């Protein structure tokens, strides 16, 4: 019996300039495909940041078999979430290739949670709503920006001026760096369906226990 998997691919413009249809090279457009030995059966767009972006998928068969990504334009932060049905069981089975004129594709892998990992957590900590890596990283960044300056005030009030000033500098620096990293690794927060698999996994666990 063949095992099928669904991988969600987030594609977005993380640079500071808008991308146009003319920035897609005809000979080597961005293509979602699978590694050798893995077949892609279907790819559909679940969500896009705006209907005006006109993000579409087109089957291609050369130089690799997959789905080419087309769009009218993508402003900074614009993008789409794509559902890819394939055989295999690994996130890394699905890949993104191609080029963008005047830019380059950054490829990152964000491993999602599964019903099994959620079940393990609940066995020790009780019921817990799964949280995406995107949310966790941004919450940690905000916490550093807020908490380290507070610690700085406490240190300075205790006459530890040097340590206090260091906390004031480290908070925005580290927190801001983590937030910028989250923008590179994860799609914009308004592409909500990127994390919907967590709710589906949670529902699967609930049904499995009932």
> Termini, distance in Å?
26 Å
Number of helices: 4
Strand tally is 9
- Can you list the strand order of the major beta sheet? 5-6-3-9
CA radius of gyration is 21 Å
Percentage of residues in strands: 15-25%
Largest sheet, described in full?
A: 4 strands, antiparallel
Concise structural overview:
With 210 residues, the chain is α+β, with helices and mostly antiparallel strands.
Report on the architecture of this protein.
The chain has 210 residues and is of the alpha+beta class. Helix content is 36%, strand content 23%. It has helices at residues 115-125, 133-157, 161-185, 196-209, and strands at residues 4-12, 19-20, 31-34, 40-48, 56-60, 66-70, 73-74, 79-87, 94-97. Strands 5-6-3-9 form a 4-stranded antiparallel β-sheet, with no helix packed on it. Strands 1-8-4 form a 3-stranded antiparallel β-sheet, with no helix packed on it. A hairpin with a 5-residue loop joins strand 5 and strand 6 (66-70). The longest helix is centred in the C-terminal third of the chain and has 25 residues, at 133-157. The radius of gyration is 21 Å and the shape is elongated.
List the SSEs and their pairings.
Layout: E1 4-12, E2 19-20, E3 31-34, E4 40-48, E5 56-60, E6 66-70, E7 73-74, E8 79-87, E9 94-97, H1 115-125, H2 133-157, H3 161-185, H4 196-209
Antiparallel strand pairs: 1-8, 2-7, 3-6, 3-9, 4-8, 5-6
